[in-house]
Amino acid sequence: MMAKHVAVLMGGFSSERPVSLSSGNACADALEAAGYAVTRLDVDRNVAARLVEVAPDVAFNALHGPFGEDGTIQGILEYLQIPYTHSGVLASALAMHKQRAKIVAKAAGVPVAEARVLHRLDAAPTHVMSPPYVIKPVAEGSSFGVLIVREDQSKPPQELYSADWPYGDIVMVERYVHGRELTCAVMGNVALDVCEIVPEGHAFYDYDSKYLPGGSRHVVPAEIPKSVIRRVQEHALAAHRAMGCRGVTRSDFRYDDRFGEGGELVWLEVNTQPGMTPTSLVPDIARAAGHSFQELIVWMVEDASCAR
Fold first, then answer.
1. Backbone angles phi, psi at 18, to 5 degrees
2. Cα(89)–Cα(46) distance, rounded to whole angstroms?
3. Binding site for Mg(2+): what residues are annotated?
4. What is the pTM of this model?
5. pLDDT digit string (tens) for 100-128?
6. Contact, 298 vs 277, CB < 8 A?
7. Residues 74, 152: one domain?
């Protein structure tokens, strides 16, 4: 029987292009080692024509950021009827928009922090929420454009006024939740282990913490009470299902245990295209559950589908 032909979609033209190239090449290497025929596609505006030319059996979506995880490439793959990894059009678009994802998660019983969505220029003159709070682009990934406003700051960050602000004009202002950074991967309909992310030399889990070697330490399983682990897993699975996700996702949380083990647990977002770089979280979490990197990637290819 001929080997299944997989087109690994990577690169693209979002802010997360370097991460996508790293993820894509790691996944392509794993698939080649597992015996698949692999075509590596650095995605550009002609991706539809290139996919028709390559004619793969499956597309492995290793794109990150706008176009790659907001439902756009998913729509192209649906139109071409090429089965693809990760979530479909609606779930991808929904999860990418932080405000709308928060509304759906809250309706499913998942705890979220209070937030407001407004134009960045309206968030710049005075505090629209009592500090501390976080300002996030409403539809970016990899912590691009995230600003933390501390209690002692007299006014919002003036970067919001910048004429070359590259992250879109609509931002979300969200209450800052003190505490520990937790994340949980969902694989199919199973919530895997919970990981604590400990940034090394960074105030929070920013781009450098995510992708530079030594930028953060991953503690899997997280050294937190079993009852909290169960709550994280339940909420991660609930968010995954409420948004109609499929394949592998990763939900991020903050856990404030300063005043007791019960603490406050807050869901931040679900990532439908989690990174697959050498320093990424999902491979570490899957490994703790007994899945090698190659096994994880092969499972994703075999799970690939179209909506209809």
1. -60, -40
2. 19
3. 252, 269, 271
4. 0.90
5. 999 999 999 999 999 999 999 999 999 99
6. no
7. no
